Amino acid sequence: MKGKFFEDFGKPILVLTVIALVVGVLLGTVNHFTAPVIAENKRIRAEETRLEALPGATAFTEMPVTEDLGINDAYRENNGLGYVFTASRKGYGGDVVVTVSLSPEGKVIRVIANVSTETTGVGSKAGEESYLNKYVGIQGSADEVDTISRATYSSKAVKEGVSAVLKAFDSLVKGGAAE
């Protein structure tokens, strides 16, 4: 009876435990070697987005950001062309990441929105140039830009992201922290 119990219950549990341990060690090892590569690729994509957002830019210096500003990061272009800020807001399908470039005076130069988590054909409209160009030239507040009908969550996320960037600019740059 004792041997039958081990054969029926103990052996399968032992085998599954060994398999789980081996798989866990393998996943940990793969993560150990790929995490730096993934982080570097993420950094490169972010730098490419900043360069795309601020035409003519060559290099950036990161500005210190506190959590209360409501943005992810802030960069000053080294030659004085302007600033690039990134903010994330909750859209319909997930986070919408908004990258905004500003002139030295705080006017929006360009907005890039990653709406890949949003519904294709509906929420994705908030990432189209025709909508994002409505923010170009504004300064101080994004209140004048309307959201998109039937893409309210997504376009509201973009609008809130741009608003957060404009407020952060006022705090960081006009407040004197960027000098």
List keywords for this structure.
Sufe protein. Chain: A, 179 residues, 3 helices
Textual characterization of the structure:
This protein has 179 residues and is an alpha+beta fold. It folds into 2 domains: 1-53; 56-174, Sufe protein. Chain: A (Alpha-Beta Complex). The protein is built from 3 helices and 5 strands, in the order H-E-E-E-E-E-H-H. The protein has helices at 2-53, 129-132, 152-174, and strands at residues 60-63, 73-77, 83-90, 95-102, 108-114. A 5-stranded antiparallel β-sheet has the order 1-2-3-4-5. Strand 4 (95-102) and strand 5 (108-114) form a beta hairpin. The longest helix has 52 residues, at 2-53.
- CATH top level class name of the largest domain: Alpha Beta
- Please describe the biggest sheet, giving its number of strands, its sense, and whether it closes into a barrel: 5 strands, antiparallel
Q: State the shape.
A: elongated
Task: Report the span from N to C terminus.
Answer: 81 Å
Oligomer: single chain
Radius of gyration: 23 Å
Helix content: 40-55%
Topology record:
Layout lengths: L1 H52 L6 E4 L9 E5 L5 E8 L4 E8 L5 E7 L14 H4 L19 H23 L5
Short recap of the structure:
This protein is an alpha+beta fold. The protein contains three helices and five strands, in the order αβββββαα. The chain folds into two domains: 53 residues; 119 residues, Sufe protein. Chain: A (Alpha-Beta Complex).
